[in-house]
Amino acid sequence: MINLDVDDLKLYIGDDFVINDNIKVCQPTIRDIAEFGERDFFSVVHTITAIPSDMKSQLWDMELDWMEVEDFELFMMLAQTLTPDRTALLFGDLDFSKLRPFRNNQNGDVVLADKETGVIIDKMIYLRIVEYLRKAFNITPKVERAKNKITKQILIDEDRKKIEFNKNKPFKSFLLPLISSVKVRQGYTKEYVLNMGYVEFMNDVARLQVIHNADHLLSACYAGTIDMKKINKAELNWMKEL
To answer: b/e string for 70-84 if b means 16 or more Cβ within 10 A?
Structure first.
């Protein structure tokens, strides 16, 4: 039975997202990510959640038009690169690289399966995996389509330039300034921050910004520098849903 819901509270708490008896997605702590390697970890997340628009030039070099490739088809191609040493933080012992495409005799759909372990990933299971990861890591897929050949070539060329630019770009930690900010602002110890789940940590970062903005708005209102009638009252509610 497939779990169809990503529970926001469980996501914040850091519970595993159980998809079925063979597949669950684990949420790492900040320490887990740091020890694994921040760049390598997020590379895996973005590989699993990638859509064809993210790989326009690579697919084109394989003589594939990204607009004609389905998301699940791309995932089946990329699964071969997802060895356990890369995915262990998220999926434990699950070995995506051993999955092979098979046709489901009941409905004709192609699925990924490991006949030795019984692991099967069909389109629905794939969607649940990427839905969880996108929600946990705040990833919004950007679908790009070209209306004509000229636009298509422009998008492919831009994609090549982006890849070339990022290839030699020195890595800069995304988490470091956030960890430092939360630790200093809240008075947390480094150990406390490192043991926080990723979603909890990022939620706290966002909440701090909301509280900061609400406090400044209130101070400005009391000081008379802002007309209370002209501000959005929701901005004063620092306990609102993020």
So the answer is: ebbebbbbebeebee
Helices and strands (DSSP H and E) totals, the chain: 11, 5
Closest Cα to residue 24, out of 110, 93, 114, 98?
93
Task: Reduce the secondary structure of 6-25 to three states and give it as a string.
Answer: CCHHHHHHCCCEECCCCCEE
| Overall pTM > 0.85 | yes
Q: pLDDT for 198-238, tens place per residue?
A: 999 999 999 998 888 888 787 877 777 777 777 777 777 77
Give domain limits for the chain: 8-143+150-167, 175-236
Contact 76, 112 (CB under 8 A): yes
Round to whole Å and give the CA distance between 94 and 83.
9
The set of residues, in sequence order, having a beta carbon less than 8 Å from that of 225 and lying 6+ positions away, is: none
Distance in angstroms (rounded) separating the CA atoms of residues 37 and 47:
15
